[in-house]
Amino acid sequence: MPYKDKLKQKENHKLWHINNRDRVLLKQKKYRFGVKRLVFSKYCREDIKCECCGEKHWEFLSIDHINGGGSKLRQEHGRGYLYYWLVKNNFPKGYRVLCHNCNQSYGTFGKCPHQKLEMRDSYSGSIRPSQG
Ligand SMILES: [Zn+2]
Ligand SMILES: [Zn+2]
Asked: Domain for residue 9, yes or no?
C-alpha cells in the first residue's frame, strides 16, 4: 500500500472521530443523567429535591452517604461511579439526596446552616415572653 493511501486512511479515521465525538459525548451525557435521575427518584419520597433545603433543580443535587462513607467509594471509582453502583446494588439504604451546598456543608462541618436556622427559629419561638 502506497504511503499516501495509508496516510489518507489515517486522516479519514481521525475525521470520523472528530465528527462523531460530540454525538458520542452527548449520548454518554444523556445516559449518565438518566442514571442520576433514576437514583434520585428512588431516594426521594415525593418530588426530587434536597432533603435539607428542598432545592428542586436536580442539576444541583447529589447523593450523600448518611454515615459519610461515600467519599471513599468516590475516591476509588470516580465521581459518577456512585450512581451506577447504587443501581447495581438495588438502591441500598443509608443514602439521601442533598444539593451540593448542603452536601458540602455536611461533609465539612457535619451539619448544615439550614438546620441551624430551623433550630433557631423554633428556639426563638419558645423563649418569646408571654404577655399578660
Ligand atoms: Zn440543600
Ligand atoms: Zn442544607
From this structure: no
Q: How far is the CA of 49 from the centre of ligand 1 (A)?
A: 8
How many domains does the chain fold into? Answer: 1
Q: How far is the CA of 100 from the centre of ligand 2 (A)?
A: 9
Better-predicted residue by pLDDT, 81 or 43: 43
pLDDT computed for residue 39 by the predictor: 94
* pTM as predicted: 0.63
Cα(106) to ligand 2 centroid in Å equals: 8
Report yes or no on 127 lying in a domain.
no
Are the beta carbons of 73 and 79 closer than 8 angstroms? no
Which residues does residue 61 pair with via DSSP β-bridges, in sequence order?
99
Q: Which residue has the cell 426530587?
A: 48
Q: Which domain holds residue 26?
A: 18-122
